[in-house]
Amino acid sequence: MGCGNPMLKRRKSTQVCIMKPQINDAWSTTSNSSRLEDYSISTLLGKGGFGKVVKAQHVSTKAQFAIKMIAKNPSKPNQSKKALNNEVSVLKKLNHENIVSYIDSFEDSSFLYIVTELCQEKNLYEKIKKAGKLKENTVKEILLQILSAVEYLHDNKIVHRDIKLENILFVSEGSNKIKLTDFGTAANLEKNQRVSGCCGSIFYIAPEMLEGDYNEKIDIWSCGILAYALSTGKWPYEERTTEEVLEKILCSPFQISADNCEGLSNEFVSLLKEMLRIKPEERISASDAIRHKLFNDVILFYFMLNYELVTCLKKLSLFFLRMI
């Protein structure tokens, strides 16, 4: 892996994206009937380079949703449409308990809108910013759900390309149930199982993304960085500028060692090492990561929980049958 890549000189922000999304040219995914007037906007949930996300209530049904609002670029009227078309076309294909559900999309003269289900709690970054770091058992529970979503994406030949703390939402207060969101830079794997283009958020970028084309294993690297940050409360790189961090990723990617994983169990360290292997062909897959010994007790817990639930439902059914 070489250093001094000229790509590094062109990046100015922590959100990196220098490619065109893989999309269809037609703006064919929006609804012809929905309008912003159909919703009552109440709260700002977040904002970024893409625009903002707001909490909204449907006027007639009173149901609550999240709406992503992307400002149109007057100088490039088709660019925003194509980017949103990409996100909507991906979201429409997905149906997984740990991925936000698509509801609708539409546009007006100023904005493009994506309506999704509403997650009532804050994102993972806001939680760790307050807590510093999370207990290993909590991280295991969250990471298993993320990997389940990633396995589903990869099975459907989709690469997320921007897995990070801010894109993991908690469904409700007091629960560790999460959902993966923001498919603005997601891509479909080509026939040769490779995609290209550098995008995502700087600390989570896999080394091979700076080298050329790559496959779905970049998502696994991002999951590894996310898991490390959650369990230690630390970022993988100490460099201050975007260019310095990218140079570090390219020349000396983050690796797990005895110095930076103190206090973590052997099983957790083992999985982190597998997810953060520099060579993508040696990096663990989402399917194999889910089956790692780290999650044995978590999977057993969910199995027992589901067993108890089924048992209770059977007893309840018998009770009502006797009442008839």
From TrEMBL:
<keyword id="KW-0723">Serine/threonine-protein kinase</keyword>
<dbReference type="InterPro" id="IPR000719">
    <property type="entry name" value="Prot_kinase_dom"/>
</dbReference>
<keyword id="KW-0547">Nucleotide-binding</keyword>
<keyword id="KW-0808">Transferase</keyword>
<keyword id="KW-0479">Metal-binding</keyword>
<keyword id="KW-0418">Kinase</keyword>
<protein>
    <recommendedName>
        <fullName>non-specific serine/threonine protein kinase</fullName>
        <ecNumber>2.7.11.1</ecNumber>
    </recommendedName>
</protein>
<keyword id="KW-0677">Repeat</keyword>
<comment type="similarity">
    <text>Belongs to the protein kinase superfamily. Ser/Thr protein kinase family. CDPK subfamily.</text>
</comment>
<dbReference type="GO" id="GO:0004674">
    <property type="term" value="F:protein serine/threonine kinase activity"/>
</dbReference>
<dbReference type="GO" id="GO:0005524">
    <property type="term" value="F:ATP binding"/>
</dbReference>
<feature type="binding site">
    <location>
        <position position="72"/>
    </location>
    <ligand>
        <name>ATP</name>
    </ligand>
</feature>
<keyword id="KW-0106">Calcium</keyword>
<dbReference type="GO" id="GO:0005634">
    <property type="term" value="C:nucleus"/>
</dbReference>
<keyword id="KW-0067">ATP-binding</keyword>
<dbReference type="InterPro" id="IPR017441">
    <property type="entry name" value="Protein_kinase_ATP_BS"/>
</dbReference>
<dbReference type="GO" id="GO:0046872">
    <property type="term" value="F:metal ion binding"/>
</dbReference>
<feature type="domain" description="Protein kinase">
    <location>
        <begin position="39"/>
        <end position="295"/>
    </location>
</feature>
<dbReference type="InterPro" id="IPR008271">
    <property type="entry name" value="Ser/Thr_kinase_AS"/>
</dbReference>
<dbReference type="Pfam" id="PF00069">
    <property type="entry name" value="Pkinase"/>
</dbReference>
<comment type="subunit">
    <text>Monomer.</text>
</comment>
<dbReference type="InterPro" id="IPR011009">
    <property type="entry name" value="Kinase-like_dom_sf"/>
</dbReference>
